[in-house]
Amino acid sequence: MRKLTAIVLCMATAITFSACSSKDNSQDFQVKTGTRTESERTTASNKNDETGGDLFEIETVQKYPGIHEELLEFAYEELQDDARPELSTQIENLDDYDTIFLGYPNWNEDLPMPMYTFLEEYDLSGKTIIPFTTHGGSGFASTIQTIESLQPNATVNENGLSISRNSVADAKSDVVDWVNDLEL
Fold first, then answer.
1. DSSP string, 98-153
2. How confident is the model at residue 51 (pLDDT cuts 50, 70, 90)?
3. Which long-range contacts (CB under 8 A, 24 or more apart) does 67-70 make?
4. Three-state DSSP class for 41?
């Protein structure tokens, strides 16, 4: 049986983590990066409903704009500056998890810059990373390849879930089907 635990921490601008337990009863953990938008929260929540697991959100020191257009402009400036926003929360028990569902919004056809910070600060060697994203039209773009390059000793599942931000409210069945197809 899976050991299912739930941890929910508040986020302002966040990176949330989610993972699944393995047959050896290791804990579940979920990762999602997001902002204050409902699309990332809803997708992560739907995924977490299906897998169980811990839900952990990492906040950045820098607070992000809550208005979509301002957020995209801010994110574009971070991308142009190749910024690495400081994370204000840390994962202390990452070794307890084998599988990480890594969720994030696709901003400007790339990972959010806080995700770069996370992937450069944490060693996910030997873990399985399963990405999922919300986007405004570009799907995953090259984000899966970026994750692979930043975590070369992890296994990145290329069968991630990509949902348009306009479809999130009606995507629960897509999330259920995707999780079931993963055979966790």
1. SEEEEEEE-BTTB--HHHHHHHHHS--TT-EEEEEEEESS-TTTTHHHHHHHH-TT
2. low
3. 68/37
4. helix
Read off the DSSP letter of residue 157.
Answer: P
pTM of the model: 0.76
CATH fold group of domain 14-175: Rossmann fold (3.40.50)
Burial degree of 67 (CB within 10 A; 0-12, 13-18, 19+): exposed
Dihedral angle sign, alpha carbons of residues 49, 103, 56, 148: positive
Assign 44 to helix, strand or coil. Answer: helix
Task: Work out the pLDDT band at 17, boundaries 50, 70, 90.
Answer: very low
Beta bridge partners of 57: 16
Contact 156, 101 (CB under 8 A): no
Q: For residue 25, with 0-12 CB atoms within 10 Å meaning exposed, 13-18 middle and 19 or more buried, which class applies?
A: exposed
Per-chain mean pLDDT for the chain: 74
- Residues 33 and 15 sit within 8 Å (Cβ to Cβ): yes
- What would you report as the CA-atom Rg of the chain, rounded to the nearest whole angstrom? 15
pLDDT tens track for 23-32: 343 444 444 4
Interatomic CA distance for residues 11 and 31, integer angstroms: 13
- Within 10 angstroms of residue 127's Cβ, the number of other Cβ atoms is 21
